[in-house]
Structure formats: C-alpha cells, structure tokens
C-alpha cells in the first residue's frame, strides 16, 4: 500500500511537471532504446534521474507523516531534556517542506538529488535547477522516508525495486497527464491520495 501510494504520488508530480517528465523520458529512452527492453539491475543503476524524481515525490508527498521513538531513559538532545518514557516524533513530511531545511520546498526539483550537474548536451535535467537547489546541502536527516536505525523499514529494497521498475517501464512507454486539478491527499497515520487515480496515458510513438 505504501509502495503503490508512493508510485501514484510520483505519477502525479511527473504529470504536473511535464518538463521534468520529458527529462526522465530522455534518460529512459537512452537506457531502454526499445519499448519492450527489459529493466535489469545494471540498467537501473544508471537511471539517476528516475531515482531523483522518486525521491523528490517522496519528499513532497511522503507516505509516512513521521516516525516515532520512545526514550528508554532520560536524555538530552540539542539542549532539550527528554525524560524517560516520552515519545518523540520526527515529522518527515513537515520538515522536508520547510524553507529552513530545503531550498524552494514547494517546487518539484528532482535535480536537488543528483550527484552531478546535468550536462546541457544530454538533455537530462536542468543545470539551472541543479545550481539553484543544491546551493546549500540539506541536513542528512531531513529526508528519511524509510526511517532510520534498527527499526527502519525492512521492505525498503523491495519497495524501491518495485517503484523503479514500474515507473521506468511506464514513463518509457507512455506520456502521463493528470487533468483533474490538484490531487487530494489525506494525512492520517499515512499521507496518501484519496481521489480516483484518473491518469491519462498516451502511448509513446517509439
Ligand atoms: C514506498 C514504500 C514504503 C515506505 C515509504 C515505507 C516507510 C516505512 C517507514 C517510515 C517505517 C518506520 C521506520 C522507522 O520507524 O524508522 C517503516 C517500517 C516498516 N516497513 Fe516500510 N515502507 C514502505 C514499504 C514497505 C514494504 C513493501 C514492506 C514489506 C515488504 C515494508 C515493511 C515494513 C516493516 C515490517 C516495518 C517495521 C520495521 C520495524 O519496526 O522494525 N515497508 N516503513
């Protein structure tokens, strides 16, 4: 369920940001030249822009609102005294959307997650968006959609493989649109879309 909601959120953000979807299509066309090419582990390794798009979607529409930890003894963290048996919440969704921690938090900029500046000649990613969004590196704990430490998500690798494979095949072969305004999300224990996923998929010519 968490995986399917994260996939739906990525489909939505790519639909609403067609120029980013086109960058992704170019990357996938390069790695999967034929529409029925099989996605392999080696090929997935090179899909850097795909992974950046998924990360950016999970930042804006994190399925987990946050993670909780209970203190087992009195501790002090960052000058705050936390007594034994108090629950502490790490609110992923909120932290990743604050200007204090993220440059232009309301913009969908997969480039912020790329290791290298996109080369204009490749046509995969915007060098300008890379420069703007990576001017200050975010704190490593600002983005932890699968949690952290001994109790982090054990299904992470399964979920990532499923998201990468499905989205690689889908965006390689279809152009995505969402023509129903803004998608509605519900924030309870999980943050997830609560409206019909009425995407329009148009077959790519080649
Ligand atoms: C995009 C998909 C997914 C996301 C975003 C996600 C996220 C999370 C998060 C945030 C936690 C809490 C981690 C913490 O407290 O530090 C968690 C725990 C967990 N997840 Fe996932 N998850 C996903 C998919 C899956 C899948 C596919 C499986 C199973 C195959 C799975 C199994 C689990 C289990 C068993 C735990 C509890 C681990 C523990 O308490 O020791 N998750 N997940």
TrEMBL record:
Entry binding sites for heme: 153
UniProt keyword DNA-binding present: no
Membrane topology, as annotated: Peripheral membrane protein
Record bears the keyword DNA repair: no
Gene3D superfamilies, alphabetized: Cytochrome P450
InterPro entries referenced in this protein's UniProt entry, alphabetically: CYP11_CYP27_families, Cyt_P450, Cyt_P450_CS, Cyt_P450_E_grp-IV, Cyt_P450_sf
Annotated localization: Endoplasmic reticulum membrane; Microsome membrane
An MF annotation (GO) of this entry: oxidoreductase activity, acting on paired donors, with incorporation or reduction of molecular oxygen
One Pfam entry name: p450
GO cellular component: endoplasmic reticulum membrane
PANTHER family the UniProt entry points to: CYTOCHROME P450
Stated role: May be involved in the metabolism of insect hormones and in the breakdown of synthetic insecticides.
The family this protein is said to belong to: Belongs to the cytochrome P450 family.
This protein's name: Cytochrome P450
Organism: Ladona fulva
């Amino acid at each position: 369920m968490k995986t399917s909601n994260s996939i739906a959120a990525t489909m939505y953000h790519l639909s609403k940001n067609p120029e980013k979807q086109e960058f992704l299509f170019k990357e996938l066309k390069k790695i999967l030249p034929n529409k029925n090419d099989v996605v392999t582990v080696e090929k997935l390794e090179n899909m850097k822009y795909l992974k950046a798009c998924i990360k950016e979607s999970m930042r804006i529409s994190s399925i987990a609102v946050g993670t909780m930890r209970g203190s087992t003894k009195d501790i002090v963290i960052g000058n705050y005294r936390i007594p034994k048996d108090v629950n502490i919440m790490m609110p992923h969704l909120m932290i990743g959307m604050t200007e204090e921690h993220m440059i232009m938090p309301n913009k969908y900029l997969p480039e912020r997650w790329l290791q290298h500046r996109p080369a204009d000649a490749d046509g995969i990613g915007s060098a300008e968006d890379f420069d703007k969004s990576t001017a200050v590196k975010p704190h490593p704990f600002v983005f932890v959609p699968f949690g952290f430490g001994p109790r982090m998500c054990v299904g992470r690798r399964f979920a990532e493989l499923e998201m990468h494979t499905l989205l690689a095949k889908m965006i390689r072969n279809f152009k995505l649109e969402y023509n129903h305004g803004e998608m509605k999300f519900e924030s309870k224990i999980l943050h997830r879309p609560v409206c019909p996923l009425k995407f329009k998929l148009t077959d790519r010519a080649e």
